[in-house]
Amino acid sequence: MISRVIPVAGDSGVYVPCRQSVVSFGSGAIAVAALCALYLFDPAEYRLFPPCPFHAITGFHCPGCGSLRALHALLRGHLVEAFDFNPLMILFLPILAYMFLSERRESFPNRNARRAFYVLWHGWAVLALIVGYGILRNLPFYPFVLLAP
Amino acid sequence: MYCPKCGSENDDNAFRCTRCGNILQQTQGSPGGPPPSIPTYLAPAILVTLFCCLPFGIVAIVYAAQVSGRMAGGDYIGAAELSRKAKMWCWVSFGIGLAFIVLYVVFIVAVEVLGGFSQQM
Ligand SMILES: [Zn+2]
Ligand SMILES: [Zn+2]
């Protein structure tokens, strides 16, 4: 668990680095390191990247299976190949980018666009999409085999 | 309760957060006043679901999905609590995923090193 910062009463005059900035810097650094490793090494060839624990245990594909291989293909500029490994993840990249931007800035690009976006990409819709996708990509016949990595 | 802005613990009926001064008690549907922003953590929840390959990300999405509904209904305290749970499950999923990767890499390196040793001998 993340340690909670004890509330400081009044101004102590001591600069304490904000926990949130440390956390965002840390996760940012991890993400950049992971992307560099993904660019350099193909997860399909190198054992450096772990297999999906869900797939290893159950034998089924989870909604995230193929994400690393897809990201590697995308970083190398192979869009079609990336789409082949995990189409939903590729579809979600621009949506996630917008979500992160709009969480930071309330009215990005404006309130109405933001509202319309979240009507369509509401949490329940996202949940249904991801769970449905997770089930469909395990079906062993056409066209669902296209969804498997 | 926890401050939805900075996450520090406060008295249940505190009006302002002792750490960041964020207003904690919302008068129901105050007209004209800007609605408080309580993060839904939907984006990080999707991210950990698609990259950590673990069911905890789904739990985070379930909590994240309820935040905006509570906010629309004026229940900011409930929304903040769901937001906190969504955040917690995002970190649980991320932490377990990271721990798994680190253990896996250590295991692979150990196997390679030991394998190299046995080949030399
Ligand atoms: Zn998986
Ligand atoms: Zn606070």
Biggest sheet of chain B, in brief? none
Judged by helices, strands and strand pairing, the structural class of chain B is mainly alpha
Largest interface: A-B, 42 and 39 residues
Number of strands of chain A: 0
SSE series of chain B:
HHH
Protein topology:
The complex is a heterodimer of chains A (149) and B (121).
Chain A: H1 19-40, H2 53-58, H3 67-75, H4 79-85, H5 87-104, H6 111-120, H7 123-136
Helix pairs in contact in A: 1-3, 3-4, 4-5
Chain B: H1 42-52, H2 56-72, H3 76-120
Helix pairs in contact in B: 1-2, 1-3, 2-3
Question: What do you see in this structure?
Answer:
The complex is a heterodimer of chains A (149) and B (121). With 149 residues, chain A is mainly alpha-helical. In chain A, helix 1 (19-40) packs across helix 3, helix 3 (67-75) packs antiparallel against helix 4 (79-85) and helix 4 (79-85) crosses helix 5. Chain A has seven helices and no strands. In chain A, 21% of the residues are buried. Chain A folds into two domains: 1-40; 47-147, no CATH class. The two termini of chain A are 33 Å apart. With 121 residues, chain B is mostly helical. Chain B has two domains: 1-26; 42-120. Chain B is built from three helices and no strands. The longest helix of chain B has 45 residues, at 76-120. In chain B, 36% of the residues are buried. The A-B interface holds A 1-2, 4-9, 19-20, 27, 30, 47-48, 50, 52-55, 62-65, 67-68, 86, 88-89, 92, 96, 99-100, 103, 106, 118, 122-124, 126-127, 130-131 and B 6-10, 17-19, 37, 39-40, 42-43, 46-47, 49-55, 58, 61-62, 64-68, 88, 91, 94, 98, 100-101, 104-105, 108. Bound molecules: zinc ion (ZN) (2 copies). One zinc ion (ZN) is lined by residues 52, 54-55, 62, 64-65 of chain A.
Task: Fill in the keyword field for this structure.
heterodimer, A: 149 residues, mainly alpha, 7 helices, globular, disordered N terminus, B: 121 residues, elongated
